[in-house]
Specification:
The complex is a heterodimer.
Chain A: H1 2-24, H2 29-43, H3 46-55, H4 58-63, H5 79-82, H6 84-101, H7 107-120, H8 133-142, H9 146-158, H10 162-166, H11 171-176, H12 179-194, H13 202-209, H14 216-226, H15 231-243, H16 245-255, H17 259-262, H18 274-291, H19 296-311, H20 315-338, H21 343-346, H22 349-379, H23 398-410, H24 417-441
Helix pairs in contact in A: 1-2, 6-7, 7-20, 8-20, 9-14, 9-19, 9-20, 12-13, 12-22, 13-14, 14-15, 14-24, 15-22, 16-22, 16-23, 18-19, 19-20, 23-24
Chain B: H1 6-42, H2 48-81
The chains are: A mainly alpha, B mainly alpha.
Chain lengths: 443, 82
């Protein structure tokens, strides 16, 4: 007890001594207000002080939602979002932790996103508001689409486009798989047209459908341009389904192929020289400059990273992009996206629609890729195993590994991994192009 | 949005989007094939040679294997005769 009294006395003394100091720096009005409050504290009884302090605790904030309260960004909050909504969201972030840690679902992004979500649901703390640290990260790199592009740079630096250059026609599989994006776009608008539950605008539907591109940075990039409020749900859906690729894809792949088709062996890929590897990023960039300048931020970043990699003279830069830079930005991006997991943004019917549509998008994309590969196999002189078609939904390199695994179930000696990498990396380009098309429509 | 049929709009997006994606990637395939043709013709890479060498080595080793098998069989025969 003596200690407590001592601490309280010290507190009074300090607040008294610092008063003139605060008052003199009256340029900050918030601090001036605080001074006033401190002044009032001094004349209050100890019980009054404790009850006032209680009103600043999280417990009080959870139990006593106020009417007309606003969140850190000044938007109005419902009573539910202030109390139970926050509690539910905190448990949802715990579920995401479980998925990331125990189940290994894309932990590199899901973990920071979930923690960002946890911090976003703290009452009174203003972490996601302007000036709060996650709010600052959000403003610095997500609002203006900077972070997804830096991630794309790193992806470019990490990706070997060799398998695609060796067998360019597999790029068409990466194109077919983008059907998932547009299929779910139609699904999303159909839902809002024919059910009373959802009301997605075309912009929102487009942002949601990009989940079918199975590409996290592209999804976040498009969402931040077209529908920032749905970004949290879109990012969570995109990364969760990317992690679920080994579970979602195989049944669909088996459904559309026969055992004989799955056992098809492909001709070994030729080796690709340095000149071709250097020409590749430039070719892709030139094409996107000519056809779709709207997609050049994404493709430009991707090809820059890849160009640095294959040039062979700036290993330090490409190494930084592949490791340090992408890691730092992943932390910032994850926390920033997590700020959109605040209860008022996430606990809405739309989220369920987004999760369902994302799943449909993945399924359609996988099926379209496999069917395209079957068609190509009919017309191509070298055999094409339809299983590599499913890798056309980006999700590098997970989708390619799934193709390989399902192929080995039919014939353990059949190594499809490198063949599947072709459509896999083409899928990244394909979804960037699809994103560019969607963005150009709303330009 | 009122009277606008969103589904029709969505289908329009789909046609435009898939056409663009396919066109883009087909153009890319075409250009890549052209480039690889040019590179093969004017800059025959050194990588091709090692491939041939490797094939030759592989072929040689196959022949070697046969020789070795023959030699071993012959020596076993010899051994049995003794």
């Amino acid at each position: 007890m003596k200690n407590l009294i001592f601490v309280l006395l010290t507190f009074f003394a300090i607040s008294f001594l610092t008063n003139p100091l605060y008052a003199s720096s009256s340029e900050n009005s918030v601090q001036t207000q605080k001074v006033v409050k401190v002044d009032q504290h001094e004349v209050k009884s100890i019980s009054k002080m404790f009850s006032n302090f209680y009103k600043t605790t999280g417990i009080y904030a959870f139990l006593n939602p106020r009417d007309g309260a606003t969140n850190a960004l000044g938007e109005p909050l419902s009573k539910f979002a202030q109390s139970w909504g926050r509690v539910i969201m905190i448990f949802i972030t715990f579920l995401l932790f479980y998925l990331a840690i125990a189940k290994g679902f894309e932990p590199l992004l899901l973990l920071p996103i979930a923690f960002g979500g946890l911090l976003a649901n703290i009452p009174l703390a203003n972490i996601i508001g302007h000036g709060g640290f996650i709010g600052t990260l959000f403003d610095a790199g997500i609002k203006n689409e900077l972070f997804p592009l830096i991630i794309f740079m790193g992806v470019g630096a990490m990706t070997d486009f060799g398998p695609l250059i060796a067998n360019p026609k597999t790029a068409l599989l990466g194109a077919a798989a983008q059907f998932g994006i547009f299929g779910s776009l139609v699904g999303a608008v159909a839902l809002s047209q024919y059910t009373p539950l959802f009301d997605f605008t075309l912009k929102q539907a487009s942002a949601i459908s990009i989940i079918g591109g199975a590409d996290g940075p592209t999804s976040i990039f498009v969402a931040s341009k077209l529908s920032p409020d749905l970004m949290g749900a879109i990012a969570v859906a995109a990364y969760s389904y990317m992690a679920l690729v080994p579970i979602i894809q195989p049944p669909i792949m088996r459904l559309f192929t026969t055992k004989e088709e799955r056992a098809i062996k492909m001709v070994q890929l030729r080796e690709v020289g340095k000149i071709e590897k250097l020409m590749f990023p430039l070719t892709v960039l030139m094409l996107s400059i000519l056809i779709l300048p709207e997609s050049t931020p994404l493709i430009g970043a991707l090809t820059f990273g890849n160009f640095a990699r294959v040039s062979g003279v700036v290993d330090r830069l490409s190494g930084t992009m592949q490791n340090a830079l992408i890691n730092i930005v992943t932390i910032f991006l994850g926390l920033g996206v997590g700020s959109k997991l605040a209860a008022e943004k996430f606990l809405i019917a739309d989220t369920l629609g987004i999760l369902a549509l994302g799943l449909i998008a993945f399924a359609i994309g996988t099926a379209a890729g496999v069917l395209m590969a079957k068609i190509m196999n009919k017309f191509s002189k070298d055999p094409i195993n339809p299983l590599i078609g499913s890798a056309g939904v980006s999700a590098v390199p997970m989708a390619a590994r799934v193709s390989n695994k399902v192929g080995m179930e039919s014939d353990p000696t059949n190594m499809l991994l490198m063949h599947a990498m072709g459509p896999n990396v083409a899928g990244v380009i394909g979804s960037a192009v699809a994103a560019g098309v969607l963005l150009s429509i709303f330009k | 949005m009122g009277d606008v049929n969103l589904v029709v709009e969505g289908l329009k997006f789909m046609v435009l989007g898939m056409t663009t994606v396919f066109l883009f990637l087909m153009l890319m395939v075409f250009v890549l094939n052209v480039i690889s043709g040019i590179v093969k013709k004017y800059f025959p890479s050194k990588k091709v040679k090692p491939l041939h060498v490797r094939n030759q080595v592989a072929a040689n080793s196959d022949a070697d294997d046969e020789e070795i098998v023959a030699v071993i069989t012959a020596s076993i025969e010899q051994f049995r005769k003794h």
